[in-house]
């Protein structure tokens, strides 16, 4: 049995374009989540305790965020990507396979949070053009959080 047509005031093409953009935001966000969790587990050195706790706060927030982004994609009527290969194809966040020093972890996460913010900012005009306020609100919240997180991490490097 087919689902009823979606009639939320956004045409199909716009919903698909917005969902495709949100899929990139989701992939970037999940990539930062995974990297942050890795760094939480593997950080060492004099800043261990503070970074270990901070990274936990960050990946916990990101875990909620990826769920919200995926649910918005679904509300737009599109499937949310959910595999490593899909994320790898969609993300702009480089993977870290090694165990960098704590300062390098911070530098990477600054760059990565800024990347997610830029990706969200690229999608924002699509939502705005379609009068998709829920997506615009979600993107605004994500940009605010990623930019604040990047600022806080960057402050550790001063």
TrEMBL record:
GO terms for molecular function: ferric iron binding; oxidoreductase activity, acting on metal ions. It comes from the Bacteria. CDD domains: DPS. Residues 20-157 form the Ferritin/DPS domain. It holds the Pfam family Ferritin. Belongs to the Dps family. This is DNA starvation/stationary phase protection protein. It comes from Spiribacter salilacus.
């Amino acid at each position: 049995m087919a689902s009823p047509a979606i009639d939320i005031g956004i045409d199909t093409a716009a919903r698909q374009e917005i969902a495709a953009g949100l899929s990139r935001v989701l992939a970037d966000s999940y990539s930062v989540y995974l990297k942050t969790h890795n760094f939480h587990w593997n950080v060492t050195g004099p800043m261990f305790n503070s970074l270990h706790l901070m990274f936990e706060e960050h990946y916990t927030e990101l875990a909620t965020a990826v769920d919200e982004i995926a649910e918005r994609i679904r509300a737009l009527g599109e499937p949310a990507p959910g595999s490593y290969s899909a994320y790898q194809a969609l993300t702009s966040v480089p993977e870290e396979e090694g165990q960098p020093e704590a300062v390098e972890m911070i530098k990477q996460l600054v760059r990565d949070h800024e990347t997610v913010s830029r990706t969200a900012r690229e999608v924002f005009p699509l939502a705005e053009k379609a009068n998709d306020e829920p997506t615009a609100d979600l993107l605004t919240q994500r940009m605010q959080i990623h930019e604040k997180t990047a600022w806080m991490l960057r402050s550790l490097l001063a």
